[in-house]
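I hope you will forgive my troubling you with a question about protein structure. You will find the record immediately after this paragraph.
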Amino acid sequence: MKHGVMKRLTWAACAAAALTGALTACVPLVVGGAAGGSVLIATDRRTSGMQLEDEGIELRAASRLRDNVGERGHINVTSYNRQVLLTGEVPSAQDKQLVEQVVSRVENVASTVNELVVSGNSTLTQRSSDVLVTGRVKAMLIDARDLQANSFKVVTERGTTYLMGRVTQREADRGTEVVRGTPGVQKVVRIFEIISEEELTRMLPSPAKPQPDAAKSPAN
């Protein structure tokens, strides 16, 4: 019981920190997804090398977008297993296409999912609402005992929640069901890499072997 409470408090603290950043930041380009997007490395199903590569992709993409797009629009870049999700707002269809072209040329990007909206920038109220929705989604995933919540990367933009991760078909369907029932979620977009149950089993750590108790060993 205490362990579950601590996990909830951790997610709440993360959401509060993200909310503070969303309300005070003036930078139009966000690396690592919208303010509500995050994942815990400890249980990430990517290798540590791939996690670093995704961080590098986000940083390189951000740098090139600053050079090519400047401060036009509000663009979020999220890379997961070299698949890049683009969310946010840009002022024109030409800018939307330009952003995708720039990001697709970044080293080691495997594919892009362009969910940018041609519109004025979202308001701080909308962004803070998205942060709160993301926090609720993560809490709901934690409550779902048949899911590993940290296997899902969650990004919310304008009420639409994007789900990324390496999950089985069962996890994808169950996770989508949970997220659709979360208050504030208007739409769910799945950007999963589907793996088999056998592949998931190989990913899971082997149970630790019991160590002999030296205190109970027979005396000579």
